[in-house]
Amino acid sequence: MARKLMVVVLAALAVAAAFSGGATATTVPAAIIPVKVTITDTGIVFSRLRARRGWGVHFNIVNKSKKPAQVDIGGLESPVLKPGAKGRVSASLDERGRYPYLVVGTKKAKQKGWFTVY
């Protein structure tokens, strides 16, 4: 009888150990992708305008215009970049939707648009 009880207890412990492994895992982006963002005097160009939910994104920004520029991507603002300077804004894309981007301080139609998380 004691032997059967020991076998049942060991089996229960083995099952419990098998199902308890994922409790300490953290959430990390499925992929981290670079997105090139180029600011010119006439517009702004992204290497891609769509990304999947769950991805991490590094927006690598280059100011090729003749004036200092700052980019706002869905509420994330880059530092003010002098002509020829580079900067980076990183984000974890947790929610689907369309996020506006624009060159801060300009009203030119070609210097704004939408970045989509699907």
Describe this structure in words.
The protein has 118 residues and is α+β, with helices and mostly antiparallel strands. The chain has one domain: Cupredoxins -  blue copper proteins (Immunoglobulin-like). Helix content is 15%, strand content 39%. The protein has one helix spanning 2-19, and strands spanning 32-39, 44-46, 50-51, 56-63, 71-73, 76-77, 86-92, 97-103, 112-117. The protein starts with a helix and ends with a strand.
Instruction: Report the CATH superfamily.
Output: Cupredoxins -  blue copper proteins
Uncertain segments are: none
Lateral strand order in the biggest sheet: 3-9-8-5-6
Shape: globular
- Which second-level CATH architecture applies? Sandwich
Strands, count: 9
The structural class is alpha+beta
Question: Mean pLDDT, as a whole number?
Answer: 84
Number of domains: 1
User: Helices and strands, in N-to-C order?
Assistant: HEEEEEEEEE
Largest sheet: 5 strands, mixed
Question: Can you describe this structure in just a few lines?
Answer:
Helices cover 15% and strands 39% of the residues. It is α+β, with helices and mostly antiparallel strands and 118 residues long. It has one domain (32-117): Cupredoxins -  blue copper proteins (Immunoglobulin-like, Sandwich).
